[in-house]
Amino acid sequence: xxxxxxxxxxxxxxxxxxxxxxxxxxxxxxxxxxxxxxxxxxxxxxxxxxxxxxxxxxxxxxxxxxxxxxxxxxxxxxxxxxxxxxxxxxxxxxxxxxxxxxxxxxxxxxxxxxxxxxxxxxxxxxxxxxxxxxxxxxxxxxxxxxxxxxxxxxxxxxxxxxxxxxxxxxxxxxxxxxxxxxxxxxxxxxxxxxxxxxxxxxxxxxxxxxxxxxxxxxxxxxxxxxxxxxxxxxxxxxxxxxxxxxxxxxxxxxxxxxxxxxxxxxxxxxxxxxxxxxxxxxxxxxxxxxxxxxxxxxxxxxxxxxxxxxxxxxxxxxxxxxxxxxxxxxxxxxxxxxxxxxxxxxxxxxxxxxxxxxxxxxxxxxxxxxxxxxxxxxxxxxxxxxxxxxxxxxxxxxxxxxxxxxxxxxxxxxx
Length: 415
Ligand SMILES: *[C@@H]1O[C@H](CO)[C@@H](O)[C@H](O)[C@H]1NC(C)=O
Ligand SMILES: *[C@@H]1O[C@H](CO)[C@@H](O)[C@H](O)[C@H]1NC(C)=O
Prior knowledge:
16 helices; AB_hydrolase_fold; Alpha/beta hydrolase fold-3 domain-containing protein; EutQ; Say1-like
């Protein structure tokens, strides 16, 4: 049942949206990147609404399962984009193909996508739309050999506490690996990024299972690595404080003891298998993970300049990836400055690493504010990555470029 507060929040949504629309001619909508777009101001209001629900109340929204989003909503909206081999077909209990490449070999890449939503919200159509956009924007030689599997993991609002999802990912990953597949890309947004990182710790711990290969690549989209902020992060000079006016996440979101119990139970979240950012960082926890360090592997991280979680993502990248990037000391004004906003390695004597701060980006920009790339791909099937506005579609362009560069596909003449 939805709580009384939940009912007020839900009934309040149309009022919030109306208020956003009424104010728009005067205040120009959201602050920062999405100023001057009513549609994006409304999207931001909806995102804030979904996050503000208690974990229990979100169980009602979460009745719309990943399977329904893929097989009904997105399939109906994008009939031409979803005519893909095995689109919507279940692989196992907790995963569904968006595409399984025709005649794929076991060495062709499988992208395993872990959706965001705080471990209490389901996959949204926007996740699938952004993923499909990236897929169609890949160079054809890569695209035709690439498969994408979406993980439909259990949510905290249905009793699956944080820390259990990684075992569902492990079950799917092991099943694929035992079938001989060895070319994995782990991709996740927000808490999905957390899941991907925690999974690396699990693989590290379970090196006694030598048949499990390390993921070839990791793609972290606005990863939520430190689930609970320290109190001093809520003071000026920290992204938790300074970006509140731009972002969808509020500062006391995870400091609410009821939310903590609903997500963690009575477990201590300061644990490498739950919230790595809440454990004092040691480079040695990450230095022997090939995906992050060894030649032939690669890792991509994107975080938004105006994102509340920005400092935490950059901190993890400093310890785990050797990234020198610090939180920007001055506002970018929306312009990209490579020395301030990007750390990229050559990949010639170690893993290829690309850490990017999106100027004025907010949490989940690439998913919830760029997903309309799918509409573009639908109406202009010939569209190419270079045709996309690199500012408006910053995240989708950067992620697709990374995939285009790093996906390793088998050659025509292989079996
Ligand atoms: C897959 O293999 C079948 C049977 O060999 C063949 O008819 C089909 O054209 C192949 N598809 C692709 C995309 O290569
Ligand atoms: C994709 O990668 C190939 C080389 O692997 C490169 O020639 C091409 O320009 C890249 N395309 C994009 C859109 O980045």
